[in-house]
């Protein structure tokens, strides 16, 4: 990533004048979640995936300072600092995007993508812009954060299907770091299970926010980044629920692709399985619920009974 420029949300106009920006191309704006890093492996995977395609302008929203944990510790810093900061920065991004739109940015090909708390930040952006009379075409939420967005302690309304014309959600750690709710226009559930774990990720207790602890949560980014190499690598099958998908004997005729090639006319929940290590994609084999998936369902039921 040698060819880049930096700009402030207070003065975004320099973007359109930069030699790095091609006004004829669609624009991607990506950001990370709580305690994320601009140079972190998940962020790098996503940015490099897009840059390698050479078919998009790529903007990284750097809110690393606002998203970091502080002296209060991980949990309190999230609630007291990072979460309110995500709303403020999201609205500031919205104002910057509107300024760019007025200066000539092609809004109809703009795509916002956020991981974890960054997904809700993009939701705040979309909601704020909508209140100004403009609607973002697409927002992708990669395992949107669960804490304080659902359950009895919920205090926030984050990313949902009203924030853009089309909202696609990829769930990889539901019930843990990620939300359990279907909040998008389409919700894609790779390797769904009630314990929220992805194949290949270590089970057991791990230090909070350690790499092992975040493995399943980060898989949403890894799957999406891998899909950029070949847009048809991650097909997902429509079903009313995971149970109805996993007991079916034939693959659904209603399929979409996880990633850039998702069908924006689709609605509902979609399911697929992946490999436990890179390359993660299974192609069409991933939408056929094999015996392994039925065993995963049985294990999930056992966890539910024990829990």
TrEMBL record:
GO terms for cellular component: extracellular space. InterPro entries: AB_hydrolase_fold (IPR029058), Lipase (IPR013818), TAG_lipase (IPR000734). It comes from the Eukaryota. Pfam families: Lipase. Residues 12-280 form the Lipase domain. The keyword Nucleotide-binding does not apply. GO terms for molecular function: lipase activity; serine hydrolase activity. GO terms for biological process: lipid catabolic process. Its main location: secreted. Keywords: Secreted. It is found in: Secreted. Coiled coil: none annotated. Belongs to the AB hydrolase superfamily. Lipase family. This is Lipase domain-containing protein.
């Amino acid at each position: 990533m040698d060819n880049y420029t930096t700009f402030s949300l207070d003065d975004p106009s320099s973007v359109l004048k930069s030699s790095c920006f091609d006004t004829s191309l669609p624009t991607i704006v990506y950001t990370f979640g709580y305690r994320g890093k601009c140079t972190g492996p998940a962020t790098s995977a996503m940015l490099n995936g897009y840059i390698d395609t050479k078919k998009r302008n790529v903007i990284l929203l750097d809110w690393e300072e606002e998203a970091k944990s502080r002296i209060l510790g991980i949990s309190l810093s999230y609630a007291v600092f990072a979460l309110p900061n995500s709303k403020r920065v999201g609205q500031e991004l919205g104002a910057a995007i509107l300024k760019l739109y007025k200066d000539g940015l092609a809004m109809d090909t703009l795509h916002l993508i956020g991981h974890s708390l960054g997904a809700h930040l993009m939701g705040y952006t979309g909601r704020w812009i909508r209140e100004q009379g403009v609607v973002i075409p697409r927002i992708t939420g990669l395992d949107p954060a669960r804490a304080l967005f659902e359950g009895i302690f919920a205090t926030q309304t984050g990313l949902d299907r009203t924030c853009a014309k089309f909202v696609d959600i990829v769930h990889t750690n539901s019930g843990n770091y990620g939300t359990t709710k279907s909040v998008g226009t389409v919700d894609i559930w790779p390797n769904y299970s009630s314990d929220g774990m992805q194949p290949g990720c270590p089970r057991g207790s791990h230090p909070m926010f350690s790499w092992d602890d975040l493995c399943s949560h980060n898989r949403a980014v890894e799957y999406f980044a891998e899909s950029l190499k070949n847009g048809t690598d991650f097909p997902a099958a429509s079903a009313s629920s995971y149970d109805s998908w996993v007991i079916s004997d034939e693959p659904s005729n209603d399929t979409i692709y996880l990633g850039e090639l998702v069908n924006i006319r689709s609605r509902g929940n979609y399911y697929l399985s992946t490999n436990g290590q890179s390359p993660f994609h299974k192609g069409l084999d991933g939408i056929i619920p094999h015996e392994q998936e039925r065993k995963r369902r049985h294990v999930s039921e056992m966890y539910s009974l024990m829990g």
